[in-house]
Amino acid sequence: MPEGIHQKPTVEEIKDFLQRKFSGKLEVTRTEERRVYVKADRDAIYDICKYAHDNLTYEHVTSIMGNDMIDHMEVIYHLTNYFSGVMIEITTDLPLDDLRVRSTADIWTGGNWHERETYELFGIIFEGHPKLERLLTPDTYEFYPFRKSYKLRGQE
């Protein structure tokens, strides 16, 4: 399949494009009708997202969220192509001692809020984010309420 811009790529085309372009940096773990699941190296996240936006017409980031896996954190991206209806779910692992990944807020401005919320709730730092600060909780909080290690007041 030729490189370039693909407005309505199929699940198989997306899988092939991503595997060829990012060989060794991602794995397509499975596909379903209108869904592609990807596990990616965190250092490749920005380039994968930029490629999906610029070449595969993924004009919307539906969500960016964290997930506490106890021994590491995950960042999960849901990308939507409105022409084909195919969603890409990209997951990357972050070690607990280095919770950093490059921001994608300059690719999708709507991702700005998703990244801020993920920072606020999990403490994941999106490097290069234009305004990475808490949205709802006070700036004085020194904890992240969605981490599994967080205990509510009064709990032991």
Give your account of this protein's structure.
The protein has 3 helices and 7 strands. With 156 residues, the chain is of the alpha/beta class. The relative contact order is 0.15. The strands form 2 sheets. The chain has a 5-stranded mixed beta sheet with strand order 1-2-5-4-3, covered by helices on one side.
Tell me briefly what this model is:
The protein has three helices and seven strands, in the order αββαββββαβ. The chain is an alpha/beta fold and 156 residues long.
Topology:
Blueprint: H1 11-21, E1 26-32, E2 35-40, H2 45-55, E3 60-68, E4 72-80, E5 87-95, E6 100-102, H3 111-122, E7 125-127
Parallel strand pairs: 2-5, 6-7
Antiparallel strand pairs: 1-2, 3-4, 4-5
Order of helices and strands: HEEHEEEEHE
Assigned CATH architecture of the domain at 11-99: 2-Layer Sandwich
Mean pLDDT: 93
CATH superfamily of the domain at 11-99: NADH:ubiquinone oxidoreductase Nqo5 subunit
- Spans of at least 5 consecutive residues with low confidence: none
How many beta-strand segments?
7
Task: Look up the CATH topology of the domain at 11-99.
Answer: Beta Polymerase, domain 2
Q: Which structural class fits the helix and strand makeup? A: alpha/beta
For the record, what CATH class of the domain at 11-99 applies?
Alpha Beta
- Through-space gap between termini: 57 Å
Share of helix, binned: 10-25%
Oligomer: single chain
Task: Describe the sheet with the most strands.
Answer: 5 strands, mixed
